[in-house]
Each structure stands twice: as C-alpha cells, then as structure tokens.
Specification:
The protein is an alpha/beta fold. Helices cover 22% and strands 32% of the residues. It is built from six helices and 13 strands. Strands 5-4-1-8-9-10-11-12-13 form a nine-stranded mixed beta sheet, sandwiched between helices. Strands 3-2-6-7 form a four-stranded mixed beta sheet. Strand 6 (91-96) and strand 7 form a beta hairpin. The radius of gyration is 19 Å and the shape is globular. The two termini are 30 Å apart. 31% of the residues are buried.
Length: 232
C-alpha cells in the first residue's frame, strides 16, 4: 500500500500517575517509578496502530508551540505530520491503580471547539485513499470536504449513548464506514440496526469489548457477531 490514510485527530501529552495509596498525601510524597510521560490521543493511537499494520499514514492535528507540543513533534518524527498551530497543546493526567482501574483528568485547551482547519485539510487530502475522522469537534466541518472530494470517510464515534445523540449526527451522516463502542447500550444489536437506518454508512461495527464485535452491512441488513480473539 503506497497511498496514505489521512488521520484527523487529537494529540496530547499524558502524564500517568501510578497511585497505590487511597489518595495523594497533601504534605507531598515520593512515588518511586510512579510517574511516566507519554504522547497519546486518539489520532496518535491510530497512527501507531496503522503503522504497525504496515499502512502509510498522514496525521493532521492541532499543536501549540509549547513544551507539550514539541514533545509530540519529537515523538512523531518520521511521521507525515501536518500541524495546525494553536495556543496550547492538550494534556491529560491518567491516575492508575494496582487493580487496573484508571481515571483520566483532561485539559483539552478548548481544542474540541476550535475552527475546522479547512485549508490544512485540503492540502493534506490529495493522494490519500481514505480519511479517518476521529470525533473531536474540529473534524465535523471537514466531513463534507472529504465527501466532495470522493474520499471514503471512516469514523469511530467511541461510546455511543443513543442512535439519535445530537453530537454524533454529523458523523453518522458523513461516514462511509462507522464504528462505535456499545459499552453504554443495553441492546447493541438493536442499536446497530437503528444506527443503520439513520446513518449513510454501508458498513457499521459495534465493539463489545470481551464479547467481540457486531457487524452490520447495508447490503444484507443483517447483524453478525465476531467473537473476540484470545490475547495474553
């Protein structure tokens, strides 16, 4: 595969705090090997996953000219990175515990509400065989541009609350392939059919975690289950 996939999505710096005590000591403490710093974000995760699968990838994202932004650029050196400059780079604090539970504290720097980077998207799109639009707010205005250019759009709206949830509607109308997590849904198969009736996508996938995934295609109108693959 020589034509790249264009990923439009979030990049941030994430501080991970491993907390073994019930809470942080208000007087301060030493936490041996308890802090780590990573570059993360849905856009970055897609770039890493697709790269591991051998696909050329181009990433369009928003970064500030700050320490966090320079850290992201350094981590992604060698990637076809298209940066839209903004005031500050988003950051996340992830608090993890020994039992595997975790909580995220996010500072998005108002980037979800940033204007759609239309000119940067138009410059990045030529030659790409598909556009992977994450569901951060600034990608909504790019969906019609991809469709007008005849480039297939793939979108994961993550945890779907309901088929008619207002935030997701632009992606349901704009995606050719749509994915979502069914973690919040009581009847994933019924939700999948309801999304199929509302969306323009010909292929829709609902993730079930350890239950695998459900696949719906417009051609058959049927829902099929793919069990999860065993993994260590």
């Amino acid at each position: 595969m020589t034509s790249p996939l264009l990923v439009c999505g979030h990049a941030n710096v994430e501080t991970v705090l491993r907390l073994d005590a019930p809470a942080l000591d208000p007087a301060g403490s030493v936490i041996p090997d308890g802090l780590s710093l990573n570059v993360s974000g849905v856009g970055v995760n897609l770039v890493r996953g697709l790269g591991a699968l051998g696909s050329p990838v181009r990433l369009l994202t928003l970064l500030g000219d700050d320490v966090a932004g320079r850290t992201v650029r350094a981590e992604l050196r060698g990637c076809d990175l298209r940066v839209v400059p903004v005031r500050a780079t988003a950051q996340t604090l992830a608090v993890t515990r020994a039992d595997g539970t975790h909580v995220f504290h996010r500072d998005p720097k108002a980037l979800p509400d940033a204007p759609a980077p239309i000119e940067a998207f138009r410059a990045a799109l030529p030659g790409c065989r598909a556009a992977l639009m994450t569901n951060i707010g600034w990608t909504r205005g790019l969906l019609p541009l991809a469709r007008a250019a005849g480039v297939p759009v793939l979108t994961d709206v993550q945890e779907l609350r309901a088929p008619d949830h207002a935030y997701d509607q632009p992606y349901l109308r704009g995606a050719d392939v749509l994915l979502f997590s069914a973690a919040r849904l009581d009847d994933p198969a019924a939700a999948l059919r309801a999304v199929g009736a509302r969306a323009r996508a010909d292929v829709i996938v609902a993730g079930l975690g350890v239950g695998g995934a459900l696949l719906w295609t417009r051609e058959t109108g049927e829902v099929r289950n793919q069990p999860a693959f065993p993994a260590r």
